[in-house]
Every structure is written in structure tokens, then in C-alpha cells.
Amino acid sequence: MVSISLSLSPNPNHLLNETVFSSHFIHRIATVSTLSGRHMIDRTSLSTSPVNYRREKVAAVRTVSDSHSYDVVVVGAGIIGLSIARQLLNGSDLSVAVVDAAVPCSGATGAGQGYIWMVNKVPGSEKWELVMRSRQLWEKFAEDVKYLGMDPQEVLGWKKTGSLLVGKTSQEMAALKEKVEQLSKAGLKAELLSSTELQDLEPALVIGEEGGAAFLPDDYQLDARRSVAYIEKENRKYATEGRYGEYYNQPLTGLLRSGNGKIEAVQTSKNLLYSKKAIVIATGCWTGSLMQELIRDFGIEFEVPVKPRKGHLLVIENFSSFKLNHGSMEVGYLGHRDANETSSISMTATMDTSGNLVLGSSRQFVGFSTEISKHIINQIWERAGEFFPSLRELSLTDLEKTREVRVGLRPFMPGGKPMIGLVPGLSNAFLAAGHEGEGLTLALGTAEMVADMVLGNPPKVDNAPYALHTLSS
User: Fold this and answer.
1) pLDDT confidence band for 340 (50 / 70 / 90)
2) Does the predicted model carry a pTM greater than 0.90?
3) What is the DSSP string of 72-134?
4) Cα 68 → chain centroid
5) Around 430, how many Cα atoms within 13 Å sit in the side-chain half-sphere?
6) How far apart are CA 212 and CA 185, in angstroms?
7) Whether the Cβ atoms of residue 225 and residue 358 lie closer than 8 Å to each other
8) Alpha carbon of residue 124 to chain centroid
9) What is the largest CA-CA distance in the chain?
10) Contact 187, 232 (CB under 8 A)
């Protein structure tokens, strides 16, 4: 659930919030960009003459911004953006800058539940190949951490917990049986558990005599915050070689485009970052509004239909009333995930490596609001109590001192597929957004796909299903 809040509000001097620059202007910036400072420009000195205005814009860039040059500029420091940077740094000799309006894990990445599950995936779907590849890359990532003498559980919050897709009725059990058959045919270890067998695995989970679960023992969970911190640490090793830079708390305010459709540089609120090879936009649910603002005068008829889908998670710290051995999710989650409903609540429950009980989940279309809803939290608690009856003996009010509420904005895409590919009309701008609740799961596969596009490598996974298209196509 990757979501980065990139503000498009003007800078204090209102001089840098512009999206279109002529190739002549780019050349002029290049001649003065080595000069930097922090002096404000007097707004009253601006002339309405186009020539004078362009000169004043150059002066504004010169006196307000530092300029730097990288091979690739990645906009967005969620799990997708940071993973793309990591892939490029590890797999090439390119230099990479990461830009973000805030800091990592202040958006949807930090609000995620952290599961890498296959039990809720659909074999044979357009995303299946990318899902499987990304899972392989996560397994390799954990093995590499172990090879370096570290504990993946400590470093990444990585743990093979297995996953349970739970149903209560005979109709849901029929759907679970079909799910197990599909996953088994796709080569995964999957089992259909009766209510009695499920009770042995998860004593606290009560689903009735008709119910049961699809069980994938080889599924994983991780801690998104720990994983991001480690990826950042990995990336920063390249800073000493001059190959990596972080530009956090810097909203993107403009793209500098040449006449041949190439993006020469990105302008942030503080820096001008030249890109010699590519820029990558990975800004989660903000990608649609951001791209619309950035290319509105480029003459490109292109739409990014990503929109924010708000989610709540309830975290009970150091929970000791019962222990969860596996991650659990109700069958109804699958329908709520793909539906364009205004609001929905589904039971998901995991216990992280710190012993915290993580309960979810909600989905709401309420714009970009991240305000905590007490009503939604109560609904999550009540829904969890329908599957874990012992929770009803506890008061959510009494747990207030030991609970945390995470709110994030999932980047929802109609059709359920992310957009990954070259932006139409721009020869070196790539986009990776719209992963909804699968940002963590698909992060490494997406990173590899984008890096292969940038480097011109043969794709490991067919990227055609994720291609971007103009409105006229």
C-alpha cells in the first residue's frame, strides 16, 4: 500500500512551481546552475515580458536551488521507489537520486500489514507472473541477508508464518476448495483445512463447524519499516562513491523538458536534479494528480487513473491474551479488495515479530484524508471479535495506552493492475504506481522490471500487461 504525499503547492517565492520549460531555457539553466544560494527574489521585479520573465526564472533557479546530476532520479521513497533505486544501484554502475515530499514510511508503506502471501492471489491472472517473480526475489533478499551473517527476522521482520484464508459457511468452503486446487496446480503447497484441523493450528480462531481454511504453509510476512530502513542502509553505501543521494522533505515542483521529449531535470522545492538517463515516478496514490500537473502543458493526452483508497490498521502492542501462529484473512477480503465500494471492513490478523497483534482492514474512498476514524477502528475490532471470540472479553478503551492506529492511502487502480512503463510522449520518463494493497508483495518484481526497462535489458517478466497508453490509443 504505497502512498507518498507530494505537495504541488508553490514555494514561498512562487517562482519555481512551473511545469513547462523550453529547450532554450534548459540551456540557460545549465549555464548558471553551478551557482547556488538561498536569497529570495523580489516578486515585484518580475516583468511581463516573456524574455525578461524567462531570465527572472533562471535567476530564481540560480539563487534558490542547488543543482546536482545523476543518471536516474526516482521520485517517491516508498517501498516501490526505494526498491527501484536499490535494483539500479546493485545491478549497474548508474548513479541514483531519490526524491520525496516527506520521508520513507510516512505514507502507505509504513501503514502496511507486511504480508507476502500467495493465498489471496489468482493463478493464471495477468499479475501472476509478476507476483511469483517478486516472491522469489524476496526469498533471495532474505537469503542474502542471512549469507551476510545477519538474521532476516531481525533485519527485515522476515518470517515464514504461512497464511490462512478463512471461511465460515459451506459456500465459502466450496470457494476455498477451488482456491486450493488452483494454487496446487500452479505449483504451490496448499491445503484445505476443516474447522477441526484449523482449530489445532490456531486455537484462538473460531469459525464454526461448516467453516475451514485454505492454508499455505510457505507464505511469509515482513516488517515494512525494518525492510525500508535496511534498503536505505544498503543504498547509502553507494553515497561514498558519489552514486547515491537522498532528497527528502522536498516536494517535486516541475519537470524540465527538452524539445525531443526528454526530461532533462526535475525541480524540487530545494534542488534542481539533472537526469542523464531516466526519471522514475513512483508516488503511489498521488501519481495521478502529480502527473496531471506536471504534463498539463506538454500536449500529451495521458491519464493515470490512480486514486487514494484509505485504510486503517489497529495494532495492539505486546499482545499476550493469545498467540497467532499464522497470518489470517477472511474470504470476504478478496471481494472487497477488487470492488469499487465506498467503504468495507474485512478481517485480517497477523502477529509481528515484536509480539504486536495487527488487525485490519478497512477500505474507503474518501479522497486524500488520513484522519483516524474511531468508527472504523471500532468496526475492525468488532469484526476481529467475530473470528477471535476472546477479543470480546477485552475492552478497546482499556487497550488505548498500548494500541497504535496506522492509516495509509492505497494507490487504487481500476482493474487491479499497477501501471509500470514508459510515459507516452516522454522518451526517458517511467512510471510505477497503482499497486493498491500489494506494494510490499510486488515491490522487488516491480523494481527489477523498471530497472530492466531503464537499462535496456530483456525483461524477466512480460511487462506488456502493465504498459501505459495515451488516451487516444
Assistant:
1) low
2) no
3) EEEE--SHHHHHHHHHHHHHSS--EEEE-SS-TTSSHHHHS--EE-STT--TTSTTHHHHHHH
4) 26
5) 27
6) 20
7) no
8) 24
9) 80
10) no
